[in-house]
Structures are given as structure tokens and as C-alpha cells.
């Protein structure tokens, strides 16, 4: 089949990502009445260069490499790519290969972690020279207000894409009908068009959930639905094809009790509401965001950072259908989309601003500044959690949620030169041909005189060899790191250690004294760990500046290969 090589965006994904990274100010925009206001990208003063490598007929790795090579040749400062491969060697990964070439030319690549979480080892774009970005949820709710006939108001979740008002319609709850699993069964109700139905919570155990329920309610032509659900996936989906709201189980009990104890229960629903109200501590890690480490190269803890990735408002081509109401397709200039695809351009935009403020910073320095200043605590000053309220691991959220203001002035940074990455590749026992995919020549292949997998990286990961016979030897692993002072003058930092469970962490020296800007100081970190099968312990070290507010934090992960690779997604 001959490919259509037109450069226009035919599905909206690329336009949306570019708009997030560097879209200009746009007043009075919304997603069908939700998130109304002035929109802009992260770096609205940056210029956008777009390179298309994927077409309706598919994509070729050669096109991807050619696109990224051309971007570097054209002089771009940052590359954002929301695309990825999984479970292939580094030397076969087109993004890894092209990103290595970009890094060698001083260009940072920000890439999406993938949307196959929450299983471990599902992450893509985990190469050491890539900024790998996870997706988090921030403090914003799109709502419809449910008002019962007794006056009780409940703020439900809704993205119904039209101006609508459901006033004082009868509400029913029937244990059989309210499973909402069959439009044939629902159609037996005598007057669905003038009735609101309550749909019970379903955990997908029967192969259906909210999407199936709203489909059947639509087919049965009920006026509206009240959907009881606590499935996190519901709250990242902009496809709300029928009048209705989603409420949680606690609120669902209130509504059901009202209906059961009322002679003529009624309800009113209003739509197109947006709230910034902090109903739960934020940000939190989204369940679908792929977890690390990378199976292509596990020696670096990935992802690196977390950025907003749920229901992000950004521009899309106006000629592509966005959502639908029953069989009516609707278009818009701005759309809410979710995924790590939306997180990566957030990070790229921040990286672009850092490059603008510090033109001399290398890709490694920019990544370090973002990682060591990231927030690992939420708005309640507790550890960031996943969407099921479990504490998030660095293998899910990286160093934490990116903080652009703190990243502008990180104090200390972990830099790595192109030669450092060459030394890392030299440590991987690649063949000459595999080596050439990165170095693009054999010049350094016979001169790998200093191979080293201990890259000067802002995080630490140690693998514990679990013994099936029940033997638990002590793990001891040593890391060497070098910090560069990018503050305005001299500074003194002292280390604070938070050791993972069942481990001891030693750092030497514990105080680093910098007399001048750009001065370097090195330290050694040793992990000693007596583990068991229930591994996956985490901790951190933080270099805290004396008499000032700067802190430089690095996460630590200790885990087993059995624990990580035993579960497929």
C-alpha cells in the first residue's frame, strides 16, 4: 500500500502533545464547557518544530530515526516524543538509538513511560540518556451536580459534552435492572425516556464496567444514569456519551437509601462544572502509568520524573471527531486527553525553559535539576501515593512530581558527559555492530578502556539476587557520584539519609564544601541489605544546604529480579 505522506495530523495526538509543550496563549477555550479559561503550553514563548514519522498505514523505525536526526540537524534544543517500544534490546530500539545521537549533540529527549501500569517492568523509553516521564493526576475535577428531591446535593463526575439540564425526573433503583449489564433487560422498563436509573458499582469481574453500563443505558434510552463506580479508569476518560454522573459507593448508598424510602423519588442533574477543590491529596500516580525498571536496561531506576497526565486540555485539529453523544460525533479545537503521552511534553516544556534560563546546561544537568528538586510529598505533606492510595515507588513516579520553579535553582547537579555514556555502553558487552548503532562508528569500540555501568545519575537502584533455597546473603553495592555546584557562590551541604527497610546506607564524606561555582565534589554511597522475597524497599539521600533552603534529593530502590520480572502485564 502506498503511504499518504501528507504532513497534517490525522488523529490529533501530535497536535495535542505539541500544544502542551509550547502552545501559545488562547483565551476562552474549553472542552465542551469543561476547563474553561485561558490555555497555554508549558513554554509558550518557545518555537515548535514538528516532525511526522507515523502515518495511517503505520510507522517505520527508519522514519523515526530520520525524524529525530533531522530535528537535531535543524538545531532544536529539546525533543518530546510520546511513543515507545517495549521489551527490545537497546540496540534495536529506534528511540534509544536516535536519542543517544541527540544527547551527543547536546539535545535532551523527553519521552513517555507508557500506559501499561501498574505491573512492574512494563516501562518503555528507559534508556539512561532519555528523560522518562510518568503520569500523575493533579487537583482538578470535572463535575455534574446531582440534587435529590430531598435537597441533598452530591458533586458527581461527568464530562457529558453538551449544555444540558435534567430537572426533577423520577429515579429508580432495582437490584436486577441496576446491574445495567443488558440493554435488552433495561428496555423492559416501561418509561425509560422519562426516568433516571441508578447503576450499581461493578469491579469489571464480569467483563464490563462503566463503559459497558453507559452503553446499555444509552441503548435502552433512559433519560440519564447515576453510575456508582470507584474504578480509577473512569476519572481519566473523556468519553461520556450519555447524560449522567459518576458517584462513589458511599454517596451511592445515600442515593439508594433516598430512593428506597421515598414515595416519588426525583433528581436533578446539572453539567459542565469544573472545580479546583483538593478533595484528596494531590498529585498522585496514575494506575496506568507504566512502572520500571526498563527491561531493556535495568541498571538505572526508571522512570525519572512524574508530570501531569490525566485529562489535559490542549489543542487538536478541529476536523477530527473528538467525542460523541450516542451516534452524533462532535468536534472541538481543544480536547481533554490522558496518558503518559501528555506527561512527556510537560517535562519537555519545563526542560526548554531551563535551557532558556541556563544555555550552558547539558541534557544531563537539565534532567538532574528536574529530578533532584521534584516533589516526593503531596499537598498534605505525605508521600505521594498511587491512585489506590498505596505509597508510590520511585519505579512508578521517579523522583517525584516535577517542580519547575525549584528546578531553576537546584544548587547541585549530577552531570554526565557523552564519554560517560560511551563508557556505559562499553560495559554492556555489545558486539561491534551493536556498539555502532549508538556510536555510529567503530572508533571507540576497541578503545573501551574505562567501561563503567556506574553512571553519574541522580538516583540509585540495587538488585538483590533472591535465592529460591531460602538463603539470604547480604547485598553490598557501592556507587560513586560527583556533584557540581551551580549556585551563585560557595556552599556547604550535609547529607540526610533515609535508609530502605532492612538496609544500612553509608555516605562518605557526609559533608560537601564548595568554594566556587562549577566546583565538583564526589562522594561514595554503599548499600548493605539483608533481604527476602518481599523486596522492593525504597529510601533516599538528600544533600541539604547549610543556612539556605536548597535540597538535592535522590531516591534509592532495592529490589529483586524475581520480584520484578515474575509478573507480566
UniProtKB/TrEMBL annotation:
CDD domains: PA_subtilisin_like (cd02120). GO terms for biological process: proteolysis. InterPro entries: Peptidase_S8/S53_dom, Peptidase_S8/S53_dom_sf, Peptidase_S8_His-AS, Peptidase_S8_Ser-AS, Peptidase_S8_subtilisin-rel, SBT, Subtilisin-like_FN3. Keywords: Autocatalytic cleavage, Glycoprotein, Hydrolase, Protease, Serine protease, Signal, Zymogen. PANTHER family: PROPROTEIN CONVERTASE SUBTILISIN/KEXIN. It comes from the Eukaryota. It comes from Solanum stoloniferum. This is Uncharacterized protein. Residues 454-558 form the Subtilisin-like protease fibronectin type-III domain. Residues 7-381 form the Peptidase S8/S53 domain. Belongs to the peptidase S8 family. One of its GO terms (molecular function) is serine-type peptidase activity.
